[in-house]
Protein: Probable zinc protease pqqL
Amino acid sequence: MIRFPAAVTAVALAFVAPAPAPLVAQQQPALTQEIPLDPAVRTGTLPNGLRYYIQPNREPPNRVELRLAVNAGSVLEDPKQLGLAHFLEHMAFNGTRNFAKNELVNYLQSVGVQFGAHLNAYTSFDETVYILPLPTDSARVVERGFQILADWAGGQMLDDEEIERERGVVIEEWRRGRGAGMRMALKQFPVEFAGSAYAERLPIGTRESLQTFSAADLRRFYTDWYRPDLMAVVVVGDIDPARAEALIREKFGSLAAPRSAPPRPVMQVPPHAEPRFSVVTDPEATNTTVQVSFQHPARPTRTVADFRRGVVEGLHDAMLNARFDEITRSPNAPFVAAFANQGRSVRTLESYTLYAIAKENGVEPALTSLLTEAERVSQHGFTASELERAKTELLRGAERAYAEREKMRSAQIVDRYVAHFLQGEPVPGPAASYEMHRALVPGVTLEEVNRLARELITDQNRVVMANGPQKAGVTLPTEQALAAAFAQVRGKAVAAYVDNVATAPLLANAPRAGRVVSERRTDAIGTIEWRLSNGARVVVKPTEFKADEVLFRAYSPGGTSLASDADFPAVSMASATVAAGGVGSMSRVQLQKALAGKAVQVNPFISGTEEGLGGGGSPKDLETLFQLIHLHFTAPRADAEAAAAFKNQMSGFLRNRDANPESAFQDTVQVTMAQGHARARPFNAATVEAQDLARSLAFYRDRFADAGDFTFVFVGSVRPDSLKPLVEKYIASLPAAGRRESPRDMGIRPPRGVVRKTVRRGTEPKSMTRLAFTGAIPVRPEEVHGLRSLSELLQIRLTEALRERLGGTYSASVNWSVSRLPVESYTLNVQFTSAPDRADELVRATFAEIDRIKSEGVPEADLTKVREAQRRNAETNLRLNQYWLGNLVSYDTRGWDPRLIPNDAALAERVTSASLQAAARRFLDAQNHVQVVLVPETAR
Structure:
């Protein structure tokens, strides 16, 4: 797997949470003090130089996350090794000292570790990281897991035959990534990273190199760079630290660096005095974008002063991004979307970046607006109210992270230590991080944030890049025109920003409460169901999986199926159109400001068959959450300007969607599967243009006019006795009319028989193939589990056949779905990317695997893989609020007994060769499927 560079803010600000107590500074730590490593971690260095980190963590129980971090990536390749850092990552799964050929993957699958979903790795410019999650209830499995990491570090066999077999797989990964985005990146990277290895060492390499490199050059990369002084082992999970440390010493202690090991160079991007420009077009580009980056060498975050600097930068970005978001909600916005960000572009380079998705022929207005907003801040600064909101959100975010310190999953923690080893990122732990935020954030002044804003825009080390579609009527500006935008804005007098904040309460008048009229408990799964006086149902499942999380979903049957054919085109996006206007007396922008520091989110939806709300928040903000639920039913807000802005924004995103060959492919699949039904047409710019605010508002109000046929499900850190008064006040008080509705059957059905379509689009030598099997199914738990088990088996078999045996694709994906309405039915999809001249071969191979299952059954080894994956996934899923919410809803809408939700492990034991054989015969009918293939325009 390839990982490309992405700027990451120094301090995460994506928190929407309640305000803590007034911002009073705690005792100030010394700014020169080094940030300590979390005291919960055990760390050390072996005599051979290998670093290790071990942190016990009980969430989830009986699991451990293992990582092998190698401080070596594609920038270390020489001209004969392009793409070989990544190729080597692939070879780690194709034969090691203790696991021949594919035995490593087979073994891990036999203990419930899924290839791709769990077991994985990635290669970037500067590093390669191997990912191995394991169950810990078997000492033997844990010991072998550490052995696998050690084999990756120093025991890869790199067999000639296996290298040749893997060429095809990696070339297919190269092929899968080809498209407008990659073509434009290949032209822009040499400008952005000029004078450095980053400009010409993309991790995927080149097709020519992948086809022709020698095995000796691959082994040389392994010998030179896979050595203990460039490695770290990270262990986080439910494991004895002493045992983990002993295994590290046992398995890795004998590794030694080669005698003539080359020094690991640090690749720098040279500074440049003059601005650099890149203007790139592509016929398949779907958006027009402009980006300005002000580059500087990456700075370490070692001391409290460094941490505080990141806080100031993060506050600046949060406030500027809020202004950009506000602009996009005006009808004549100069861009479709925009953001500001400070973070690393690559390991040794940071950038302050201004980015916008522009309208067609709108690069110059978008760039001018980006620079004007930066100039506005430079001249007038931010306002005190803006800074107060940003501080409140940041502090509450830190508070929420601290509250979850005992509930954080190991997978979230382990990557922090990987970043500490590779990039020196601090890992102070939740307690120290919270205390630093409490001590430092209140003391950040408006003047210093405004001073930072004036320092960020520079003439040196500036890179300006624009790209967009290559088509008639669309012209991108020249480099001279881009340069002129800076001169036009600099020093130009601009008006100060006015912070328009609503002062009215969210809900002006308290509703007249209803009541709970009946209660039913289901002790087997710990739920409580209330029937309310207005007819609504409320299901509550209290959990302790997260300390500061409550999720909810409300739903009612009907949806857009109940819109007339005349109204449907104008109301198909009614929920989004109406939501753009805000609720009650507040616009969307005013609402966002009013909710600053509140951990609440409520999103309305109207699908084809139901309408409802989804979201959640913090237990501390439940009343605000319930007020928003009430308002979304009773006070949707019509805002013509907001609706126009929403249409403009969505049209901007979608205007060139059809230029992407993969969009044409997906659209063909969608139209074919619905036999061209008018209500199943692809979502595009025409869909957006058809929306009508007045009709959308009327339809929305009708769908939410009767709460009596709604069900509300709440899962998370809630106490029923605290929730009940809120339910009675805000949900039982909702209007009810006694309606009992069902979705209309619109007659949308997949075709019968064999249907084949070919889509000829694009220039890359790339084909995509979709096989869709459909039919009737009784929507009962055992039937659906049979379909699911078959899809999981087929995923394993097609990975082995199409990827490992034939080298014809990077991955084959298998997914399934069932529907109860309008008729009980299923769909099972198989999809893969390949060379155009191999698509037919891979289709035949797919059907050969299906026929083999039907005729021969399933060997015990494959049965074990399916059963163990299901059993292990059930163990961890049952500790997730999202899993319970999703299943409580789906079981209810399907009419299933919710007490069966924890039964996945038991169902897994019932998977047999005969059951899978029967499922294949039933669900994979070769005489009833759709086949859609995308090929290049030039293909015969």
The chain has four domains: 48-252, 276-489, 516-731, 754-935. Residues 6-25 have pLDDT under 50 and may be disordered. The radius of gyration is 29 Å. Residues 276-489 form a domain with the Cytochrome Bc1 Complex; Chain A, domain 1 fold (CATH 3.30.830.10).
